[in-house]
Amino acid sequence: MFDLVIRNARVVDGTGAPAFVGEVAVKDGRIAAVGPKVDGPARAELDAGGKAVAPGFIDPHTHFDVQLLWDGAAKPCLEHGVTSIIPGNCSLSMAPLKAGDRKAVIGMFQQIEELPPEAFTVAFEWTWEDWEGYRRALEKGLAINVAPLVGHSVIRLWVMGADANQRAARPDEIAAMQDMLRQCLAAGAIGLSTSFVDVDENARPVPSRFAQFAELDGLCAVLGEFGRMLQIVPEFYDADLTIARIDQLAELSLRHGIPTTFSPVFDSRVARDSVDRILARADEQFERGARVWPQMQTRPIDISFSLLRPSLFFARLPSWVRVLRLPVDERIAALKDPETRARLLRDAGEDGGERLMGRLVARAGEAPTDLAGKTLKAIADARGQGCALALIELSLEHGLDVAFLAANGGHDDTPRIGPLLARPRVHIGAGDGGAHLASFATYGDTGYLFSEFVRASGALTLEQAVAKITGETADIWGLKDRGRLAPGQAADIVVFDPDRIGRGEERPVFDMPGNGMRYTRDSVGVEAVLVNGELAWTPAGYTDARAGRICEMA
Amino acid sequence: MVSAEVSAGHDGEAELTLSVRFENGVVAPVVLDAEAGFDILAACGAAGAGDLVGRPWRQVLQGLYGDLNR
Predict the structure, then answer these.
(1) Helices in chain B by DSSP H: which ranges?
(2) Helices A328-336 and A338-348 sit at what angle, rounded to 10 degrees?
(3) How confident is the model at residue B67 (pLDDT cuts 50, 70, 90)?
(4) Distance in angstroms (rounded) separating the CA atoms of residues A214 and A216
(5) Which of B8, B29, B41 sits opposite A303 (nearest CB)?
(6) pLDDT of residue B68 exceeding 70
(7) Are A40 and A27 in contact (CB under 8 A)?
(8) Do A268 and B10 touch (CB under 8 A)?
(9) Is B38–A436 a contact, with Cβ atoms under 8 angstroms apart?
């Protein structure tokens, strides 16, 4: 007898094959049967109502390493249909980590993920130092599957201590790092992450950035013993440096027989050919036999700023640049000064700044509650002011701490980005879930893939989009028994409405430890999510199921 | 420098993307964060991003690193 049969389903199986009307049976946490008709009794049935039934989505770039210790669902990932996540990116993980080094790693996590201090002091108990111990701590309450990377920076810290962000490693230290990486991989880490970009809370480069090539090569030799992934953050702001890193990754991939991936990759209106050149170089390296996967995000990038910190948003306005560079008390005085203010308003344009600033949106979280989400034009009209004047006065009324958002500042050209996402050698990911908490929402990228690039632009078919974030992702990373609806596969299943799936509006919530704020998005059009055969989420909310696992590797 | 545009960075911050024409004719972008961008505006005596157009790349380097002959 099956545990569950999902009937009346539009089966999208994660292979890219055409969808078909059929049924999916689950038994003992695995897919037991898939076909037009599944014969046999079941303890429970779920009528999908003709909606899509697909493998659970896999998010390959997250930073939920800490959140998972108190929230085994990695909220709101599950409700968006994501059933497996890969944390530990960008050289940072929570193990291996000696007790004496916790402060250093907390600083890095706070810088990159913007977690509140309470996330490290009250939300969980530090019970581990090695990877095995961290894994045991995670496994206590997982509702989502986790395939964790181990971070190069923390391995370096373990071996080199305070010297980790000071100098290159000696040969004996490289050997010790190799041993530690080997232990982590044997205990369930799925690969290694490193970064050439990130900084800690003091703007110091993270330890991985002090590694010379011999060190990375030595660590990749260990990855080669296991056939595991190397993830890197290249100098993404510079196409030439990124291309040099692609070549380096290709050498490591070929030499050690490992897959590699880099992120972020995103399009910019002001550097049109950069992404084309980057993807072309990755293609060339694939032709040589290397595996160098560019990870590209789906969501556009919004610019966020307030008058509290100088932002280049105003770089085109000379008088604004001058004022914003002043120390805060002098800046406030200048913004109040009638003569300076007149210059600012003159610079903003004859329309009172409407063209330049009218579409800015007051950000929930920082703006007064009644203004959150409104455009500056609407706010200015209500105040009977021009847009620039309203921006200045509203900011002054709140100590300059009113954030505004310029939506779609980059990676927003759908007709251009859709075909890029559809390329066979582009890995859809780089969502950064669990990071940038207080800056913007990193959730709902999967919904946006369907709403923008399947329904709105048609750059991908439903089947292609599902395959990209399920079967193909599992193959790229080597995840065992995930990513497809086929007998024997783990029963990670999402039921969604292809005509509705999307992402909700960005909104602030105060659900981090210590009532810490983060931006989030609700799911749209997702109707049920199963993890290893257990119903984990429905529109009624999260269930008590804790069926998540540390993913096994193929 | 042949253009200077405000762009969106990975972390949601506004950045300054300068297009630089090299001696061999190649035009390539250079992306600067807020700190570097404002330093360069100051070093070049530029009132705004538009003032950077036409300036030599050397001034950008001086803005970032100070006196290049040190």
Answers:
(1) 34-43, 57-65
(2) 80
(3) low
(4) 6
(5) B8
(6) no
(7) no
(8) no
(9) no
Closest C-alpha among A229, A181, A226, A190 to residue A84: A190
Q: Is A239 on the interface with B (CB under 8 A)?
A: yes
Residue range A283-328, pLDDT digits in tens: 999 999 999 999 999 999 988 889 988 889 998 888 998 898 899 9
Chain A positions touching B50 (Cβ under 8 A) are 316
pLDDT digits (tens, 9 = 90+) for A10-46: 999 999 999 999 999 999 999 999 999 999 999 999 9
Contacts of B54 (CB under 8 A, 6+ apart): B1
Residue B69, C-beta contacts closer than 8 angstroms, at least 6 positions apart: none
CB A132 within 8 A of CB A72: no
Amino acid letter, B44: C
Query: Would an 8 Å CB–CB cutoff place A301 in contact with chain B?
Result: yes
**Predicted confidence (pLDDT) at residue B48 exceeds the cutoff of 90:** no
Task: Tell me the angle at which helices A328-336 and A387-397 cross, rounded to the nearest 10 degrees.
Answer: 130
Secondary element (H or E) of residue A112? helix A102-113
* Cβ distance of A315 and B7 shorter than 8 Å: no
Q: Give residue B27's identity as a one-letter amino acid code.
A: V
Q: Confidence band (pLDDT; 50, 70, 90) for B70?
A: very low
Question: Both ends of chain B: CA-CA distance in Å?
Answer: 24
- Provide the 10 A C-beta neighbour count for residue A244: 14
Q: Give the nearest partner residue to B16 out of A239, A315, A440, using CB atoms.
A: A315
Partners of residue A315 in chain B, C-beta under 8 Å: 4, 6, 14, 16, 37, 41, 48-49
Q: Do A318 and B5 touch (CB under 8 A)?
A: no
Contact across the interface for A311 and B14, Cβ inside 8 Å: yes
A43: distance to nearest CA of chain B, Å?
A: 48
- The dihedral built from the CA positions of residue A396, A399, A402 and A406, taken in this order, carries a sign that is positive
Is there a contact between B20 and B61 (Cβ–Cβ < 8 Å)? no
Residues of B whose CB is below 8 A from A304:
12-13
pLDDT tier at B8, thresholds 50, 70, 90: confident
Contacts of A348 (CB under 8 A, 6+ apart): A317, A320, A356, A357, A386, A387, A388
CB pairs under 8 A between A and B: 100
| Structure token pair of residue A362 | 């007051």
Residues 6+ apart with CB under 8 A from A443: A76, A77, A80, A431, A433, A503, A520, A521
CB distance from A57 to chain B under 8 Å? no
pLDDT value at position A65?
96
SS3 A99: helix
Regions of chain A where pLDDT drops below 50: none
Q: What is the amino acid identity at position A256?
A: H
- Classified as helix, coil or strand, A362 is strand
Written as six digits, the tokens of A404 are: 């505004």
A474, amino acid identity: A
Q: How far apart are CA A143 and CA A42, in angstroms?
A: 24
Q: Does A315 touch chain B (CB under 8 A)?
A: yes
- Nearest-5° angle of CA A271, CA A264, CA A270? 10
What pLDDT score was predicted for residue B69? Answer: 52
